[in-house]
Design brief:
Layout lengths: L9 H16 L8 H30 L1 H16 L3 H13 L4 E6 L7 H4 L4 H4 E7 L4 H12 L6 E4 L13 E7 L8 H11 E12 L7 H16 L8 H9 L3 E9 L11 E9 L1
Parallel strand pairs: 1-2, 1-4, 2-3, 4-5
Antiparallel strand pairs: 5-7, 6-7
Helix pairs in contact: 1-2, 8-10
Length: 282
């Protein structure tokens, strides 16, 4: 495999080809329709320009890992501070899990879950918090969020992928994964690491956006957005996370799953389908 080859994302090629097709297609309007032709030309020129800009933007992000990770971290930090409606669901499942003792979180991002620990029993019940986060731009954001929430538990930042975690068996009371299984390369491996990390009776907390029901309007929208989301979301993809969870945890966990439509802003409406729940290790 050529590691130095320059690869243009398929979505960029598609957007640029669509822009060219739009500009070429407007030539089919008869010249006798003078004003109609001018209006159509203006609209298609603007649409083509927007498609070209988007295509180039996605090309730059896909080929610049540092820029993509930094941009994604900034987006998550800003959006996390403005997600009050979603926080009601997020905090409810974390409260239900009774987070305490030694805690391992996969993909904590900028510390979005920390707001749920503020002014709760978890703030004093957590003895140790290990954050597994491969994006280095989340490191400072995570520590800043912990300080702003006045949380005093020890925090250890581990800058590797969830698949690469080497954790001792039965060493954690709680493992948390919120909006992370969509972004890992191999969710089954991350779940296997979570299973190994948990003590018997330990709790795995999950909160994830998922694929909509097959062939619904939302499902088609998700498939349309998916190539763009994968780049902008730094590897985020749509998948049937509930099926993956049930298949992986079938014999070793008691699983409780709630399906719901998350209150998302309009520009993120395609990630409304969500699941949340707890899996208790037997």
């Amino acid at each position: 495999m050529c590691t130095s080859c320059f690869t243009v994302p398929t979505i960029t090629v598609q957007l640029l080809c669509t822009a060219v097709a739009l500009m070429y297609g407007q030539r089919a309007v008869p010249k006798s329709f003078k004003w109609t032709k001018r209006i159509i030309f203006g609209i298609t020129a603007l649409a083509s320009l927007l498609l070209i800009v988007l295509g180039i933007f996605l090309l730059v992000l896909s080929t610049n890992d540092d820029l993509r990770r930094r941009s994604f971290a900034n987006f998550c930090s800003k959006n996390g501070k403005q997600s009050e409606a979603l926080d009601e669901f997020r905090c409810s499942i974390l409260e239900k899990s009774d987070v305490s003792g030694k805690v391992l979180e996969f993909g904590p991002g900028p510390g979005t879950n920390f707001k749920c620990f503020q002014n709760s029993t978890a703030a004093s019940a957590i003895q140790e918090y290990v954050a597994v986060e491969p994006n280095p731009y989340f490191h400072e954001l995570l520590h800043n969020e912990k300080r702003e929430r006045d949380l005093n538990f020890p925090l250890d930042f581990v800058g590797i992928k969830g698949e690469d975690v080497d954790v001792s068996e039965g060493s954690f009371d709680v493992v948390i994964a919120t909006h992370v299984l969509c972004s890992v390369d191999f969710p089954e491996v991350v779940l296997a690491n979570a299973e190994r990390a948990l003590k018997p009776g330990g709790t795995f907390v999950f909160f994830e956006h998922v694929y909509a029901e097959y062939q619904t309007k939302m499902w088609y929208l998700q498939n349309l957005i998916a190539p763009i989301q994968y780049i902008v979301g730094d590897g985020c993809r749509f998948q049937d996370t509930e099926e993956i969870l049930r298949r992986k945890f079938a014999s070793q966990f008691d699983i409780d799953v709630t399906t719901f439509d998350a209150p998302m802003p309009l520009f993120l409406s395609f990630v409304k389908p969500h699941i949340m729940g707890l899996a208790i290790k037997k």
